[in-house]
Amino acid sequence: MSDTRWLDAGEQGTWRALVSVLGRLNEQLDRQLQRDTGIPLTYYEILVRLSETPGRELRMSELAEQSEYSRSRLSHAVSKLEKLGWVRRKSCPTDKRGQLAELTDEGMASLVAAAPGHVTEVRKLVFDPLTAREVQQLGELCDKLRVSWGDSPCDSPCPETTQ
Amino acid sequence: MSDTRWLDAGEQGTWRALVSVLGRLNEQLDRQLQRDTGIPLTYYEILVRLSETPGRELRMSELAEQSEYSRSRLSHAVSKLEKLGWVRRKSCPTDKRGQLAELTDEGMASLVAAAPGHVTEVRKLVFDPLTAREVQQLGELCDKLRVSWGDSPCDSPCPETTQ
DNA sequence: CCCGCTTAGTTGAACTCTCAACCAGGAGAC
DNA sequence: GTCTCCTGGTTGAGAGTTCAACTAAGCGGG
Protein backbone atom coordinates (compact mmCIF):
# COMPACT_ATOMS: atom_id res chain seq x y z
CA MET A 1 0.00 0.00 0.00
CA SER A 2 3.01 2.30 0.25
CA ASP A 3 3.43 2.48 -3.52
CA THR A 4 0.93 5.28 -3.87
CA ARG A 5 1.36 7.39 -6.97
CA TRP A 6 1.38 10.84 -5.41
CA LEU A 7 0.49 13.94 -7.36
CA ASP A 8 3.39 15.88 -8.85
CA ALA A 9 3.55 19.66 -8.59
CA GLY A 10 1.58 20.24 -11.78
CA GLU A 11 -1.13 17.82 -10.82
CA GLN A 12 -1.33 19.39 -7.38
CA GLY A 13 -1.93 22.75 -9.00
CA THR A 14 -4.61 21.43 -11.28
CA TRP A 15 -6.25 19.63 -8.43
CA ARG A 16 -6.30 22.64 -6.13
CA ALA A 17 -7.71 24.80 -8.90
CA LEU A 18 -10.43 22.28 -9.60
CA VAL A 19 -11.41 21.88 -5.97
CA SER A 20 -11.47 25.61 -5.53
CA VAL A 21 -13.69 26.11 -8.56
CA LEU A 22 -16.01 23.38 -7.35
CA GLY A 23 -16.38 24.98 -3.96
CA ARG A 24 -16.77 28.56 -5.02
CA LEU A 25 -19.22 27.77 -7.77
CA ASN A 26 -21.53 25.88 -5.51
CA GLU A 27 -21.27 28.46 -2.80
CA GLN A 28 -21.91 31.43 -5.06
CA LEU A 29 -24.81 29.90 -6.93
CA ASP A 30 -26.46 28.68 -3.80
CA ARG A 31 -26.02 31.99 -2.04
CA GLN A 32 -27.48 33.98 -4.92
CA LEU A 33 -30.48 31.72 -5.24
CA GLN A 34 -31.08 31.53 -1.52
CA ARG A 35 -30.75 35.27 -1.09
CA ASP A 36 -32.95 36.31 -4.00
CA THR A 37 -35.57 33.57 -3.95
CA GLY A 38 -35.21 31.53 -0.79
CA ILE A 39 -34.78 28.34 -2.83
CA PRO A 40 -31.66 26.29 -2.18
CA LEU A 41 -29.78 25.35 -5.33
CA THR A 42 -30.55 21.67 -4.94
CA TYR A 43 -34.28 22.28 -4.75
CA TYR A 44 -34.11 24.51 -7.78
CA GLU A 45 -32.63 21.59 -9.69
CA ILE A 46 -35.65 19.48 -8.80
CA LEU A 47 -38.09 22.13 -9.94
CA VAL A 48 -36.23 22.43 -13.23
CA ARG A 49 -36.38 18.72 -13.91
CA LEU A 50 -40.08 18.59 -13.17
CA SER A 51 -40.80 21.63 -15.30
CA GLU A 52 -39.14 19.99 -18.29
CA THR A 53 -41.25 16.86 -18.13
CA PRO A 54 -44.49 16.66 -20.12
CA GLY A 55 -47.25 16.74 -17.52
CA ARG A 56 -44.79 18.26 -15.07
CA GLU A 57 -44.71 15.06 -13.07
CA LEU A 58 -42.16 12.33 -12.55
CA ARG A 59 -41.72 9.16 -10.57
CA MET A 60 -39.63 9.75 -7.47
CA SER A 61 -37.05 7.25 -8.64
CA GLU A 62 -36.85 8.86 -12.09
CA LEU A 63 -36.44 12.26 -10.55
CA ALA A 64 -33.75 10.98 -8.24
CA GLU A 65 -31.80 9.46 -11.08
CA GLN A 66 -32.07 12.49 -13.32
CA SER A 67 -30.91 14.89 -10.67
CA GLU A 68 -28.35 12.44 -9.30
CA TYR A 69 -29.73 12.62 -5.76
CA SER A 70 -30.12 9.76 -3.34
CA ARG A 71 -33.66 8.56 -2.78
CA SER A 72 -33.49 9.73 0.77
CA ARG A 73 -32.31 13.19 -0.14
CA LEU A 74 -35.00 13.51 -2.74
CA SER A 75 -37.68 12.33 -0.36
CA HIS A 76 -36.71 14.93 2.22
CA ALA A 77 -36.48 17.60 -0.46
CA VAL A 78 -39.88 16.84 -1.93
CA SER A 79 -41.40 16.91 1.54
CA LYS A 80 -40.05 20.41 1.97
CA LEU A 81 -41.21 21.51 -1.48
CA GLU A 82 -44.62 20.07 -0.70
CA LYS A 83 -44.80 22.15 2.46
CA LEU A 84 -44.00 25.20 0.35
CA GLY A 85 -46.84 24.24 -1.98
CA TRP A 86 -44.58 23.95 -5.01
CA VAL A 87 -44.81 20.21 -5.50
CA ARG A 88 -47.61 17.72 -4.92
CA ARG A 89 -47.24 14.00 -4.29
CA LYS A 90 -49.59 11.65 -6.11
CA SER A 91 -49.66 7.89 -5.92
CA CYS A 92 -48.70 6.09 -9.09
CA PRO A 93 -51.60 4.36 -10.84
CA THR A 94 -49.54 1.55 -12.35
CA ASP A 95 -47.40 0.66 -9.34
CA LYS A 96 -48.83 0.91 -5.88
CA ARG A 97 -45.35 1.33 -4.40
CA GLY A 98 -44.69 4.33 -6.56
CA GLN A 99 -45.11 8.03 -5.97
CA LEU A 100 -45.32 10.80 -8.51
CA ALA A 101 -44.03 14.28 -7.81
CA GLU A 102 -45.98 16.94 -9.64
CA LEU A 103 -44.98 20.56 -10.05
CA THR A 104 -47.82 22.85 -8.99
CA ASP A 105 -48.67 26.15 -10.66
CA GLU A 106 -47.23 27.96 -7.68
CA GLY A 107 -44.04 25.96 -8.03
CA MET A 108 -43.84 26.78 -11.71
CA ALA A 109 -44.38 30.45 -10.93
CA SER A 110 -41.58 30.44 -8.37
CA LEU A 111 -39.30 28.75 -10.84
CA VAL A 112 -40.10 31.26 -13.54
CA ALA A 113 -39.39 34.04 -11.11
CA ALA A 114 -36.09 32.55 -9.99
CA ALA A 115 -34.69 31.47 -13.32
CA PRO A 116 -33.45 34.78 -14.74
CA GLY A 117 -31.34 35.62 -11.71
CA HIS A 118 -29.87 32.16 -11.63
CA VAL A 119 -29.01 32.07 -15.32
CA THR A 120 -27.47 35.49 -15.09
CA GLU A 121 -25.28 34.31 -12.24
CA VAL A 122 -24.24 31.21 -14.15
CA ARG A 123 -23.28 33.33 -17.11
CA LYS A 124 -21.36 35.75 -14.97
CA LEU A 125 -19.41 33.02 -13.21
CA VAL A 126 -18.72 30.57 -16.01
CA PHE A 127 -19.70 31.53 -19.53
CA ASP A 128 -18.72 35.17 -19.68
CA PRO A 129 -15.13 34.68 -18.44
CA LEU A 130 -14.45 31.98 -21.04
CA THR A 131 -14.29 32.09 -24.83
CA ALA A 132 -16.66 29.91 -26.85
CA ARG A 133 -13.78 27.57 -27.60
CA GLU A 134 -12.95 27.24 -23.93
CA VAL A 135 -16.54 26.58 -22.99
CA GLN A 136 -16.58 23.79 -25.53
CA GLN A 137 -13.35 22.36 -24.12
CA LEU A 138 -14.77 22.47 -20.63
CA GLY A 139 -17.87 20.62 -21.72
CA GLU A 140 -15.82 17.98 -23.48
CA LEU A 141 -13.57 17.45 -20.50
CA CYS A 142 -16.50 17.08 -18.15
CA ASP A 143 -18.24 14.71 -20.49
CA LYS A 144 -15.11 12.65 -20.85
CA LEU A 145 -14.91 12.32 -17.09
CA ARG A 146 -18.56 11.39 -16.85
CA VAL A 147 -18.20 8.76 -19.54
CA SER A 148 -15.18 7.29 -17.79
CA TRP A 149 -17.35 6.96 -14.70
CA GLY A 150 -19.93 4.99 -16.63
CA ASP A 151 -22.39 7.84 -17.22
CA SER A 152 -23.70 8.94 -20.57
CA PRO A 153 -22.45 12.23 -22.01
CA CYS A 154 -24.55 15.35 -21.46
CA ASP A 155 -23.83 17.15 -24.71
CA SER A 156 -24.90 14.50 -27.15
CA PRO A 157 -28.50 14.11 -28.31
CA CYS A 158 -31.05 12.92 -25.81
CA PRO A 159 -29.69 9.78 -24.15
CA GLU A 160 -33.23 8.65 -23.26
CA THR A 161 -33.08 5.00 -24.17
CA THR A 162 -30.24 2.66 -24.89
CA GLN A 163 -31.89 0.99 -27.88
CA MET B 1 -35.47 42.08 -16.36
CA SER B 2 -37.04 39.98 -19.12
CA ASP B 3 -34.02 40.31 -21.40
CA THR B 4 -32.21 37.43 -19.79
CA ARG B 5 -29.64 35.78 -22.02
CA TRP B 6 -30.72 32.16 -21.68
CA LEU B 7 -28.38 29.28 -22.30
CA ASP B 8 -28.47 27.77 -25.77
CA ALA B 9 -28.49 24.00 -26.25
CA GLY B 10 -24.71 23.70 -26.29
CA GLU B 11 -24.29 25.80 -23.17
CA GLN B 12 -27.00 23.77 -21.45
CA GLY B 13 -25.05 20.63 -22.22
CA THR B 14 -21.81 22.05 -20.93
CA TRP B 15 -23.51 23.34 -17.84
CA ARG B 16 -25.22 20.06 -17.01
CA ALA B 17 -21.98 18.18 -17.51
CA LEU B 18 -20.15 20.56 -15.22
CA VAL B 19 -22.76 20.43 -12.49
CA SER B 20 -22.82 16.67 -12.70
CA VAL B 21 -19.05 16.43 -12.41
CA LEU B 22 -19.08 18.79 -9.47
CA GLY B 23 -21.64 16.76 -7.64
CA ARG B 24 -20.29 13.32 -8.30
CA LEU B 25 -16.73 14.28 -7.52
CA ASN B 26 -17.61 15.68 -4.15
CA GLU B 27 -19.86 12.80 -3.32
CA GLN B 28 -17.40 10.11 -4.31
CA LEU B 29 -14.41 11.66 -2.61
CA ASP B 30 -16.29 12.36 0.56
CA ARG B 31 -17.78 8.90 0.66
CA GLN B 32 -14.42 7.19 0.18
CA LEU B 33 -12.76 9.22 2.90
CA GLN B 34 -15.63 8.89 5.29
CA ARG B 35 -15.91 5.17 4.74
CA ASP B 36 -12.21 4.35 5.00
CA THR B 37 -11.08 6.86 7.61
CA GLY B 38 -14.11 8.54 9.18
CA ILE B 39 -12.83 11.96 8.16
CA PRO B 40 -15.14 14.17 6.11
CA LEU B 41 -13.49 15.61 3.02
CA THR B 42 -13.69 19.15 4.34
CA TYR B 43 -11.88 18.25 7.53
CA TYR B 44 -9.23 16.42 5.56
CA GLU B 45 -8.56 19.65 3.72
CA ILE B 46 -7.89 21.41 6.99
CA LEU B 47 -5.46 18.75 8.15
CA VAL B 48 -3.60 19.00 4.84
CA ARG B 49 -3.21 22.74 5.11
CA LEU B 50 -1.91 22.50 8.64
CA SER B 51 0.49 19.70 7.77
CA GLU B 52 2.05 21.82 5.05
CA THR B 53 2.81 24.74 7.34
CA PRO B 54 6.15 24.95 9.09
CA GLY B 55 5.40 24.30 12.76
CA ARG B 56 2.15 22.69 11.71
CA GLU B 57 0.18 25.60 13.08
CA LEU B 58 -1.77 28.45 11.55
CA ARG B 59 -3.92 31.36 12.61
CA MET B 60 -7.61 30.56 12.33
CA SER B 61 -8.12 33.38 9.88
CA GLU B 62 -5.18 32.24 7.74
CA LEU B 63 -6.48 28.71 7.72
CA ALA B 64 -9.94 29.89 6.81
CA GLU B 65 -8.62 31.91 3.90
CA GLN B 66 -6.38 29.17 2.56
CA SER B 67 -9.08 26.55 2.62
CA GLU B 68 -11.75 29.00 1.47
CA TYR B 69 -14.02 28.31 4.43
CA SER B 70 -16.06 30.80 6.36
CA ARG B 71 -14.77 31.63 9.83
CA SER B 72 -17.80 30.05 11.34
CA ARG B 73 -17.42 26.85 9.42
CA LEU B 74 -13.76 26.63 10.32
CA SER B 75 -14.48 27.27 13.97
CA HIS B 76 -17.01 24.45 14.10
CA ALA B 77 -14.68 22.16 12.19
CA VAL B 78 -11.69 22.84 14.43
CA SER B 79 -13.84 22.21 17.49
CA LYS B 80 -14.70 18.82 16.09
CA LEU B 81 -11.08 18.06 15.18
CA GLU B 82 -10.06 19.12 18.65
CA LYS B 83 -12.51 16.66 20.16
CA LEU B 84 -10.94 13.96 18.01
CA GLY B 85 -7.53 14.98 19.34
CA TRP B 86 -6.15 15.81 15.93
CA VAL B 87 -5.87 19.57 16.36
CA ARG B 88 -5.09 21.74 19.37
CA ARG B 89 -6.06 25.36 19.85
CA LYS B 90 -3.44 27.73 21.24
CA SER B 91 -3.84 31.40 21.89
CA CYS B 92 -1.76 33.68 19.73
CA PRO B 93 1.14 35.38 21.55
CA THR B 94 1.16 38.52 19.40
CA ASP B 95 -2.57 39.20 19.23
CA LYS B 96 -4.77 38.37 22.18
CA ARG B 97 -7.80 38.06 19.93
CA GLY B 98 -6.11 35.43 17.82
CA GLN B 99 -6.14 31.68 17.98
CA LEU B 100 -3.69 29.22 16.50
CA ALA B 101 -4.71 25.80 15.30
CA GLU B 102 -1.94 23.24 15.68
CA LEU B 103 -1.88 19.78 14.14
CA THR B 104 -1.14 17.16 16.80
CA ASP B 105 0.95 14.05 16.24
CA GLU B 106 -2.21 11.99 16.30
CA GLY B 107 -3.72 14.26 13.67
CA MET B 108 -0.62 13.91 11.52
CA ALA B 109 -0.76 10.16 11.90
CA SER B 110 -4.40 10.04 10.84
CA LEU B 111 -3.62 12.21 7.86
CA VAL B 112 -0.71 10.00 6.83
CA ALA B 113 -2.96 6.99 7.11
CA ALA B 114 -5.74 8.58 5.09
CA ALA B 115 -3.71 10.18 2.32
CA PRO B 116 -2.90 7.18 0.11
CA GLY B 117 -6.52 6.11 -0.24
CA HIS B 118 -7.60 9.63 -1.00
CA VAL B 119 -4.93 10.27 -3.60
CA THR B 120 -5.69 6.95 -5.25
CA GLU B 121 -9.33 7.92 -5.49
CA VAL B 122 -8.46 11.31 -6.94
CA ARG B 123 -6.28 9.66 -9.57
CA LYS B 124 -8.93 7.14 -10.40
CA LEU B 125 -11.63 9.77 -10.81
CA VAL B 126 -9.79 12.59 -12.50
CA PHE B 127 -6.22 12.02 -13.60
CA ASP B 128 -6.34 8.51 -15.00
CA PRO B 129 -9.28 9.11 -17.33
CA LEU B 130 -7.64 12.16 -18.90
CA THR B 131 -4.49 12.55 -20.97
CA ALA B 132 -1.67 14.79 -19.71
CA ARG B 133 -2.72 17.40 -22.26
CA GLU B 134 -6.31 17.32 -21.03
CA VAL B 135 -5.26 17.60 -17.42
CA GLN B 136 -3.29 20.68 -18.31
CA GLN B 137 -6.27 22.16 -20.15
CA LEU B 138 -8.49 21.49 -17.18
CA GLY B 139 -6.08 23.24 -14.87
CA GLU B 140 -5.84 26.23 -17.16
CA LEU B 141 -9.60 26.53 -17.49
CA CYS B 142 -10.10 26.38 -13.73
CA ASP B 143 -7.37 28.91 -13.15
CA LYS B 144 -8.86 31.23 -15.73
CA LEU B 145 -12.19 31.08 -13.95
CA ARG B 146 -10.55 31.70 -10.60
CA VAL B 147 -8.63 34.68 -11.93
CA SER B 148 -11.81 36.12 -13.42
CA TRP B 149 -13.33 35.88 -9.96
CA GLY B 150 -10.48 37.88 -8.50
CA ASP B 151 -8.49 34.98 -7.05
CA SER B 152 -4.88 34.24 -7.80
CA PRO B 153 -4.07 31.24 -9.99
CA CYS B 154 -3.23 27.93 -8.32
CA ASP B 155 -0.70 26.61 -10.80
CA SER B 156 1.79 29.46 -10.66
CA PRO B 157 4.49 29.71 -8.01
CA CYS B 158 3.48 30.32 -4.42
CA PRO B 159 1.19 33.35 -4.27
CA GLU B 160 2.13 34.03 -0.65
CA THR B 161 2.58 37.77 -0.69
CA THR B 162 1.61 40.44 -3.14
CA GLN B 163 4.86 42.36 -2.84
C1' DC C 1 -50.97 -19.89 -1.75
C1' DC C 2 -46.76 -18.65 0.57
C1' DC C 3 -41.92 -17.96 1.07
C1' DG C 4 -38.00 -15.25 0.07
C1' DC C 5 -35.82 -11.69 -2.70
C1' DT C 6 -35.91 -7.26 -4.75
C1' DT C 7 -37.56 -2.52 -5.60
C1' DA C 8 -39.91 2.08 -4.17
C1' DG C 9 -40.01 5.16 -0.97
C1' DT C 10 -40.03 7.09 3.86
C1' DT C 11 -38.26 8.09 8.36
C1' DG C 12 -35.27 9.60 12.29
C1' DA C 13 -30.91 10.40 14.24
C1' DA C 14 -26.38 12.19 13.72
C1' DC C 15 -23.67 15.39 11.48
C1' DT C 16 -22.24 19.52 8.73
C1' DC C 17 -23.06 24.13 7.04
C1' DT C 18 -25.06 28.80 7.07
C1' DC C 19 -26.52 32.87 9.02
C1' DA C 20 -26.93 36.24 12.34
C1' DA C 21 -25.88 37.63 16.89
C1' DC C 22 -22.41 38.11 19.95
C1' DC C 23 -17.95 39.01 22.91
C1' DA C 24 -13.31 40.52 23.22
C1' DG C 25 -9.32 42.85 21.87
C1' DG C 26 -6.83 46.21 18.68
C1' DA C 27 -6.50 50.96 16.62
C1' DG C 28 -7.29 55.64 15.74
C1' DA C 29 -9.48 60.25 17.07
C1' DC C 30 -10.19 63.47 20.46
C1' DG D 1 -8.00 57.83 29.02
C1' DT D 2 -12.16 56.83 26.54
C1' DC D 3 -15.23 56.62 22.59
C1' DT D 4 -15.99 54.56 18.42
C1' DC D 5 -15.11 51.48 14.81
C1' DC D 6 -13.01 47.41 13.00
C1' DT D 7 -11.14 42.72 13.21
C1' DG D 8 -10.74 37.77 15.12
C1' DG D 9 -13.24 34.34 16.53
C1' DT D 10 -17.14 31.75 18.80
C1' DT D 11 -21.86 30.29 19.48
C1' DG D 12 -26.66 28.54 18.75
C1' DA D 13 -30.48 27.87 15.96
C1' DG D 14 -32.26 26.39 11.65
C1' DA D 15 -31.77 23.85 7.42
C1' DG D 16 -29.92 20.17 4.36
C1' DT D 17 -27.50 15.65 3.82
C1' DT D 18 -26.26 11.02 4.97
C1' DC D 19 -26.78 6.58 6.64
C1' DA D 20 -29.13 2.76 8.24
C1' DA D 21 -33.39 0.84 9.47
C1' DC D 22 -37.90 0.20 8.09
C1' DT D 23 -42.64 -0.50 5.58
C1' DA D 24 -45.03 -1.79 1.64
C1' DA D 25 -45.59 -3.80 -2.72
C1' DG D 26 -44.01 -6.41 -6.90
C1' DC D 27 -41.99 -10.76 -8.50
C1' DG D 28 -40.74 -15.49 -8.90
C1' DG D 29 -40.47 -20.35 -7.50
C1' DG D 30 -42.17 -24.35 -5.25
TrEMBL record, chains A, B:
Record's Gene3D superfamilies?
Answer: Winged helix-like DNA-binding domain superfamily/Winged helix DNA-binding domain
Q: Which PANTHER family match?
A: MARR FAMILY REGULATORY PROTEIN, TRANSCRIPTIONAL REGULATOR, MARR FAMILY
HTH marR-type domain residues are 15-147
Its source organism is Allokutzneria multivorans
Sorted alphabetically, which SUPFAM superfamilies does this protein's record hold? Winged helix' DNA-binding domain
Write down what this protein is called.
MarR family transcriptional regulator
* Tree of life domain: Bacteria
SMART domains (alphabetical): HTH_MARR
Pfam families of this UniProt entry? MarR_2
